[in-house]
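Table S2 (text version). Query chain:
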Amino acid sequence: MLHFKSPLSWPDSMPTTPLAKQRNDNSFSQEMPIADAINFLKEEIETLNIQNAILYTDIEQPHVIRLSKKIGSRTGACLHINHYNKSYIITCDRWQRLEHNIYAMHLVLRQWNNMELWGVGSLPKLMAGFEIEYSANNDHQPNYLETNGIFECLKAFGLGSTATLDDATAIYHRRAKTFAQQNDKLVQLNLQMDEIRSYFANKKTE
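Corresponding structure-token output:
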């Protein structure tokens, strides 16, 4: 399942491409609609049986055509993946067009799928280099990967075990505004919120 979030959330542990060095790749279709790039990405996510994925861009709803034109100054894309209790981040901003950055990430997932099919590596091994990394100065917030529990995520939000998704969402939006210019803190907050969303989604299916 692929979800969409804005604004673009970019981890400090991953370098960005200077604007002057961003370029076009003529091997990518110059007429590619953003909807096609997203569909390519969604297909690979489904093929790999990735349980939960969130695409961060500077477009609020890139899958809605009339809103996809309202792009911010950054054309990069950041994909958060939750797979078998581990979290990964794939980023791409090498290309001048958002469509091409999303398409490039789709190619990465396709190669992982191919390598697994060819028998040269398992998906967890192939994804290992993309596991979440945190900077040393980001120890003020509990890391849900370290605490390994939904209740630790709720606790980090100041919520108890009886809290609802609406409660968590309200706190998330307030904190996201505060951390808008602090990438590592925003990434950590997004990861915690992703875990909370997954928890409540699973509760609905029980």
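Notes on Table S2: Helices lie at 34-47, 65-68, 98-118, 123-127, 144-147, 150-156, 165-178, 183-205. The longest strand covers residues 77-83.
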